[in-house]
Amino acid sequence: MKKIMFHLMGSAALILGALLIFAQCKSEASEMAQFEALTTISGDRGLADGELKDLCLCLTRQFPYETLSDKERKALLFMREEEKLARDVYTFLQAKWNARVFSNIAKAEQRHMDAILCLIKKYGLTDPVGGNPAGVFQNNNLQALYTALTADGLQNLPAALTVGARIEDLDLFDLNQATPDIDNEDILAVFDELKKGSRNHIRAFVQNLEAQNSSYTPVYISADLFQNIIHTPRERGGSVCTATCPNANTPNCQGKGPNGAGNCGGNGPNGNGNGPNGAGNCGGNGPNGNGNGPNGNGNGNPNGNGN
Fold it and tell me: Which domain holds residue 288?
């Protein structure tokens, strides 16, 4: 009888231990799933791959070529390397911590490096990145910052996520500081997308930090701006051009720039967009495209029914 009791007690202990292990594994899996879910918002920093394909063409043809001021030139060259700083640090931290949030945002930073390169080529500037490998910068301040940030990010995962938040904090601060001195339409359009992305990435890093029972205190932007960002929903990017601009030299191309960006369904030769050709929401089939353009506000008659 004692042997039976011992066997029963041993079996019960084994079952209890298995249940505890299962519960722990389930809890860890749940936490990991939550952590991974938070990374899904981090890859969108505007300028999606599909748009980027024709972005250089759009920035060249749909936006005017305007003389660069010295401050605009410096801002372009600096932001090109600052986006590289973000990409290189996130790539480094991804290799160390294998957290998807870093790989997602690193890809977004590459797209933004490419967008700024479009402007650098448009204005005939020398690219400061050139063939420099990861972690190498012309700007001495960015070089020192890369060394410090990668060292901080090696401590643990919360420290690495804090590094990410700090980079986006700095990125947004620098963009906000540069914008008042810029009036070129194409630069403002691209920088606006970079700002949206930085705000989205701050949200992503803060949420990932919260999943690690940590938090972030802004270093560069104001506390009020930071609170506004984290309590505002994720923003949608990709609005530099509202189309891929396959016919960017014609008035039918709907994009931001001289011919504007309209919501049009007309089939007329004049297209319909916001710009010199008007701002119309059109759905007619007349030869003038039925919209708010040079021929007025049309709602479907062949001649556009101008008002």
Answer: 262-307
- What are the CB-based long-range contacts (under 8 Å, 24+) for 188-191? 189/59, 189/63, 189/240, 189/256, 190/59, 190/115, 190/116, 190/118, 190/119, 190/240, 191/75, 191/79
- pLDDT tier at 237 (50, 70, 90 boundaries)? confident
The pLDDT tens digits of the residues spanning 271-292 come to 333 333 333 333 333 333 333 3
Q: Is 244 contained in some domain?
A: no
Tokens (6 digits) for 228:
């506004």
- Based on the domain organization, do 153 and 72 belong to the same domain? yes
User: Rounded to two decimals, what is the model's pTM?
Assistant: 0.68
Q: Is residue 241 part of a domain?
A: no
Task: Point out the domain boundary residue: 207, 230, 253.
Answer: 230
